[in-house]
Amino acid sequence: MNAVLLLGLIAALLFLRQPLLIILMSAAVFVHLVWGRGQLDYIVEDMWIGLDKELILSIPLFILCGNVMTRGSIAQRLIDMLAAITRPLPGGMAVACVLACAVFAAISGSSIVTMLAIGSVMFPAMRQAGYDLKFTLGAIMSGGTLGIIIPPSIPMIIYGLVTETSIVDLFAAGFGPGILLTVVLSVYAIWVNRRRPTEAFDLDEFVRSFRRGIWAVLMPVIMLGGIYTGWFTATEAAAVALAYAMVIEIFVHKELKLGDFYNIVLEASKLGGSLFPVLAVALSLNIILIEHRIPQGMVAFMQGYIDSPLVFMLLVNVLLLIVGCLMTTGEAILVLAPLLAPVAAAYGYDKVIFGLIMILNLEIGYLTPPVGLNLIVAMSAFKQPFGLLCRAAVPFIFLMLGCLALVVWQPWIAMYFVTGKF
Amino acid sequence: MSDARKAHAAPPGAARLLAVWHTAECWLAVTCFAFIAIILVLDVLGREFLAPILNFLDIDAGPTGIFASQRMSIYALVLGSFAGIGIATATGSHLVPRVGFGWVPKAWGPAMDRLADLLTGCFLLGFTWYGFKFVHSSYVVDLRAPVLDWSVWPFQLAIPLGFLSAACRYFAYALWPTLRPGLPEFQE
Fold first, then answer.
1. Assigned domain for B159 exists
2. Mean pLDDT of chain B
């Protein structure tokens, strides 16, 4: 009965257009009043405890780093370099688009930033080169989603914090599915454009573009290499990446003045102001849920109805795909990850692989209406009708679903980079 | 301007006050986030790069990192984040699930927005009260920060003050809807 009341409260708050912060806080109040001792100041105390984690510091640093790197012409430099390499392939420019998204994703932890940075250069270039409009839009929008699966990824950090999972392991697990998606999208781009004429490889052009782009390419190598080899923690890697980004943009590319730093930090503050209080409340709610053994209750409830881990996983995937259509990634992870991860663990799914599966599902949500963020952003960025964008995304959604199914079926694709075992 | 809009128009003083307030919060947040970036970068560079060089040169310079840099950064993060609640409110950047937006006729939108702002303000005011209760209890027992041994209540004070700032702003929007920032086209 109380659970129904809680759901009713949440529905009422959604109807009353309340921010996620208030919805989560109200849920915490409800749990304290109904199942706890009604000490509401504990919620604030738990928020304080939730934020008092050093790992959380990696988020503002990665956000700052992404803001620094996306201000200048990094995207153009990466595209020039990759286009020089892929020129001999049929549909080489489309492949360059996907690869540039993948490399840019390893700099930025955001899907929209990746799509906009690469898309703003590639959309006019691909259209001018005669690529089909629907295919071009689909390639850019789906390439953008790589931003949250290829580390560093802000959703992975949030998932790690709310489920107490190693962020380094999550980052490592993101490599496999990231590479898989990049290869699948690139192969699809070649197949669709197989009748397009190819161009000869131009060594001079490659060397020229390599000189211009090498500093940007080195950034993910240093950052992710440092994390993967155990030299840096996630927070240290974020700090090194920020220092590197500043040095490159100020002294090498000469596209950032110290005065620009105010706006960069202000943008990060805006994001932080909307994210961290919500994160603190979600962590506080998580503490209450654990205290009241809610996840264990959910596990017992689910196991009463579902015996098979495979059936559970299929149901969770369907749930997450639906949620991805209705909620943003951050909202879905903050609300669902603390509830679903323990249940998944009870069915034998490691929290790392479950996190990856969750993020892969929500990544597809960027392309599904009505809340597909890449669709919404592409609508205004590329001035295209929503219906066309939805249709353009369809083949790419199927490809991504195929990759998701493959990762669920063969979890080593993600876990190999964590455990070193097939 | 229509009569209805004129009736809800904010006095210039209110708009000016909110603008000054927003600028102050921006500067506080920028200072905190810049502090985090600078101190953590210097700490890591000192430990991971300077120390090996000094060791190689046989120079004993003592610890090359910054003492308690991560702990200080956590407190700066709390200050910056809760100043950020006000910034997110002022710029319409809060995460607002839009699932329920279509549950009422579109024409009711402005009235629903005012009601939403009033309600959000009330919730935040309630949490301000519990936030102050929490800070007061820390102050009474003189809770100290690990490693630094500083009293933590001044940092904890950022939580109720952040809520209070956002609550006042929401009340202002409920009173004068023309001050309300539009919701962004998308939120990640």
1. yes
2. 87
Nearest CB partner across the interface for A269, out of B33, B44, B187: B33
Which residues are bridge partners to B151 per DSSP?
Answer: B144
Per-residue tokens: A422: 């097939």
Burial class for A164, CB neighbours closer than 10 Å (0-12, 13-18, 19+):
middle
User: Pseudo-torsion of CA B68, B71, B73, B74, nearest 10°?
Assistant: 180
Q: How large is the average pLDDT for residues B120-136?
A: 94
For A16, which of B115, B133, B162 is closest by C-beta distance?
A: B115
Put simply, whether B130 touches A (Cβ < 8 Å) is yes
Q: What is the count of structural domains for chain B?
A: 1
Tens-digit pLDDT profile for residues B73-98: 999 999 998 888 888 888 887 777 77
Among A17, A222, A270, A377, the residue to mutate for chain B (most B Cβ within 10 A): A17
Residue B77 CB neighbour total at 10 angstroms: 27
In a domain, B130, yes or no: yes
The dihedral sign for the CA sequence A239, A241, A243, A246:
negative
- Cβ pair A35, B118 in contact under 8 A: no
Cβ contact A273–B186 (<8 Å): no
Tell me how far apart the alpha carbons of residues A389 and A367 are, in angstroms, rounded to a whole number. Answer: 9
Q: Which residue bears the tokens 């219906």?
A: A387
Rounded to 5°, angle at Cα A64 from A60 and A70: 145
Q: Look up the domain containing B55 and give its range.
A: 17-95+108-179
The four Cα atoms A380, A384, A389, A392 give a dihedral, to 10 degrees, of: -140
- Alpha-carbon distance of A395 to A402, in angstroms, equals 11
The answer as to whether B103 is a domain residue is no
pLDDT at A205 (0 to 100): 93
ipTM of the complex: 0.86
What is the nearest CA distance from B113 to chain A, expressed in angstroms? 7
User: Where are the domains positioned within chain A?
Assistant: 2-419
Average pLDDT over residues B160-184: 89
3 state DSSP class of A58: helix
Instruction: Give the residue from A322, A330, A334 showing the smallest Cα distance to A361.
Output: A322
- In a domain, residue B134? The reply is yes
pLDDT along chain A (422 residues), means of 10: 84 88 88 83 87 84 82 84 93 95 87 88 93 96 94 91 91 95 97 92 93 88 82 84 87 84 83 82 81 80 87 92 84 88 92 96 90 84 89 96 96 92 80
Chain A contact for B86 (CB, 8 A cutoff): yes
Q: Do A14 and B112 touch (CB under 8 A)?
A: no
What pLDDT does residue A175 have? 93
Q: Which residue of A has its CA nearest to B145?
A: A52
B74–A112 CB contact, under 8 Å:
no
Q: Say whether B185 and A377 touch across the interface (CB within 8 A).
A: yes
pLDDT value of residue A408 = 95
Which residues are B144's β-sheet partners? B151
